[in-house]
Amino acid sequence: MNTTYIDGGLRGHRVDALTTTDQLTAWASEHAGQFSDELPAVLVERACTPRTHEQFLSLREALRSCLQSVVEHAVPNGESLAVINGFSRYSASRLEISPGNPVVVTRRWQVDDPWLIALGEVASDACRLLMPDLIGQVRACPAPGCILFFVKSHPRREWCSPVCGNRARVARHARAGRTAPGTA
């Protein structure tokens, strides 16, 4: 979801890190550790299609809309929730046991396309952010010009990254300098 960001701070421009199927493939490779153990190896074998790329972008927008509502203490719109829930279904799997000594346990998904499974796992992970133990910790970064979300994992964490925290402190210092009497 944080694959769109502002480059250059307050006066910067919006950057989309997933404009092509190649960028989505690179993103999936970089985040391989966040998928089911068996999935990353299978993702490399099959190319990401333009349709799957569009589905990832659709999920990203639905997640951004939903989380924006959450941080504003509003009810997420039904359309965004339907998109997230629809894609989340692709992550469904079961374990099967095959005979042997020792027995072999294999994960089987309900869909064959590894990219749809990855899409489902991203959607399911996002659903976990909305569970009671985490929903109160989801934040929109308050730094000037930032559009990212984060989970407040420490009581003193206020920013999505140290860079944003520093940008906010610099802006605060600049404002104080402009309003202080006797400064040039």
UniProtKB/TrEMBL annotation:
Gene3D superfamilies: Jann2411-like domain. Pfam families: ABATE, zf-CGNR. Residues 138-174 form the Zinc finger CGNR domain. This is Zinc finger CGNR domain-containing protein. It comes from Rhodococcus pyridinivorans AK37.
